[in-house]
Amino acid sequence: MNTLQLIRQVIVHPIDFFYDIQNPKRISWLQGVLLILLLFVAKMLSLIVTGYAFETRQPYEISWVYEFMWIIVPWGAYCVSNWAVSTILEGEGKFKEIFVGSAFALAPYILFIVPVTLLTNILSLDEQSIILFLSNLLLVWCGWLLLVKIKVLHDFELGKMVGIALLTVIGMVIMLFVLILMYGLINQFCSFILDLIKEVRFRY
Amino acid sequence: MRIKHRLTGLILAAVFASGLFVPGVSHAAVPYEGYQWNRHDSDVHSINGYIYQYSMDGYDLESGPFKEPQDLFVAPDGTIFVADTGNNRIVHLSMEMKVLGVIGDAEGKGALSEPKGVFVHPNGTIYVADTKNQRIVLFSPSGKYEKEHTVPHSPLLGKNFTYSPSKLTVDKREVMMVVSEGNTQGLLQIDKNGQFKGFFGANHIGFSWKRLLVNTIATDDQKAQLAVQRPLEFSSVTQDEEGSLYTTTLATETNQIKRLSPVGVDTLNPGRAKRYGDRYDVAGPFELSSFVSISVSPEGFISALDLNTSKVFEYDKLGNLLFVYGGLGDQSGLFKTPADIAGLPDGSMAVLDKGRNRIDVFRTTPFADLVHKASTLYVDGRYEEAESMWKEVLKYNANYDMAYHAIGKSLYKGERYGEAMRYFKLAETKGDYSTAFKEYRKAYMREHFAWFAGGLILLILVLRYAVPLLLRFLRRVVTARMTAGASKAESTWGKGESP
């Protein structure tokens, strides 16, 4: 099955889609990476085609590295956190399924954010609510797909699914905290080593 | 022929050159640089609106030099009153800076002690805030003592009230609006009989989550130890021709300048928190501006004096920054401790420098005159008349954002929405851009109605007939290929499995 057909399926029959991708032959790691790259492209495109009145940032304030990090870091953290939490709590999903599945769950955003943003060129600020509604709708759609993904992939009940979703978010926060902590510690450690080298060099 | 051409060229050049160097005007460099705050929170170079012209320190006057003067008032007839605080007197000067009289230096009931404010009513009565004596003294137009109003009494004032009148203005009903130093409840309204009539236009304490949290958690003992939050104090007050009161407030980042309506509501900053003065949130050595004086011209231009930077900020009637001049320093045109500002009848501005005991007079530049003229029309809503002037302003200074905005508004009013959008974009006013765009869209739709209607019909036809046809066709192709592929796959699978 090619990627386009998978995207079509996740939009039209999401529940079937998540059942189907449990067959390891149907998906590949590359598809997950491709979808995330597409998400990045869609995001950048939507920033470019935004109408003047709706621009919130000046062009020089936008950095593609920054935008990319804002996509890749939360998504990566989500995958790892969701996999870890659900594995501990008897989920059936494999990491590959979570990786690719969560990337496909963002398909509505990838597909529709550019058309929705194009609307900003023909709407005025008075009609801003339309844009807000549509873009929020996209986010809700993606969020719902992620929930469906958790439920189907791990074969959870509804209550457990909600619990896992919450735990995933908490897990992401903890991961972030540990990362910052590690960063601080490694930073200290590195500067300690550097100071040591400096001391030795001063002495001889 | 050619020689003749060259000759006329030379003559022309000479004429132009002589025009550039007008004799009799000194050409010392201006010690400060004009600038504007743009919408990206950066200070952009602009042309100076006011240039230092001359000073007046009183040494040439028969009344002698000033000593820490603190207030300057230009009477309706153009004469100047200086509250010469350190010399305990008021000096009355003519427009040509000749002494017309000295008030309050004689012994008797009219003797003043460190007067910090002076005001002259249109009927000629001179009101002096006699700060050290805690009273307001009225003098006749000739400078004779008339009467005094001592400490007002009212239960509203509270027990700890100390009266220290510093600045005052008197409205048409002869009700005095007095700034009392250290008082945070607003301006004191005192009627012509000396009766206290209530506070006016007090600053309010805004809502703060922190305070709510502290108040809910803290015990009474702890609360007693906290610093009491008081409303902010007014530092000066002035009145425009229409009788609106303008005040400056200390110790706040926003809305330091207010225009109070007769019921005490701020009409200059309706529902907004505007930063006046320099943008210390962006960059600056201080935390806050501290405006100590304000003056409003007959056309409604507001000049406010900031003590921290010693700069004067001029705003239009709507609160848009027009010019900045002055600064801290020793050169002429800079100040040591500026105390008050007042507009002279010819449009120039007089700044009273307490630290240097002198009055510095600044004249407007041609650029400022142009901006003032354009702005007056603009503020009155006569955008079309102002348009050509704003275009002239842009020739002088292409970074003058207000000009783009004003031209945009004029074009909008003239229903030239496309051009208006371009100017609003240059002025970076998204709201107005969007409004103009909406009108542009409407006009565009009307003009190309046939195309839109035709397109809509075509779209419906395509969606109703062409797309389903195409889909049906595609599906047939895909199923055909899939069955072919499946049988092929089956056959290969069969081959692979069979031994």
From TrEMBL, chain A:
Which residues constitute the signal peptide according to the record?
Answer: none
Listed InterPro entries:
Yip1_dom (IPR006977)
Q: How does it sit in the membrane?
A: Multi-pass membrane protein
CC per GO annotation: membrane
- Keyword Transmembrane included in the entry's annotation: yes
Domain Yip1: from-to ranges? 9-179
Pfam families named among the record's database cross-references? Yip1
The UniProt transmembrane annotation reads: 33-54, 66-86, 98-118, 130-150, 162-186
What keywords would UniProt list here? Membrane, Transmembrane, Transmembrane helix
* Compartmental location: Membrane
In which domain of life is the source organism classified?
Bacteria
Output this protein's name. Answer: Yip1 domain-containing protein
Species annotation? Paenibacillus rhizosphaerae
Q: What is the lineage of its organism?
A: Bacteria, Bacillati, Bacillota, Bacilli, Bacillales
Automatic annotation (TrEMBL), chain B:
- The NHL repeats lie at 64-96, 108-142
Matching Gene3D superfamilies, A to Z? Tetratricopeptide repeat domain (1.25.40.10), TolB, C-terminal domain (2.120.10.30)
Could you tell me one molecular function GO term of this UniProt entry? zinc ion binding
- The portions of this protein that span the membrane are 449-471
User: Where would one find the signal peptide in this protein?
Assistant: 1-28
Report keywords, A-Z: Membrane, Repeat, Signal, Transmembrane, Transmembrane helix
A Pfam family that this protein carries is NHL
InterPro entries named in the record: 6-blade_b-propeller_TolB-like, NHL_repeat, TPR-like_helical_dom_sf, TRIM-NHL_E3_ligases
Protein name, as recorded: SMP-30/Gluconolactonase/LRE-like region domain-containing protein
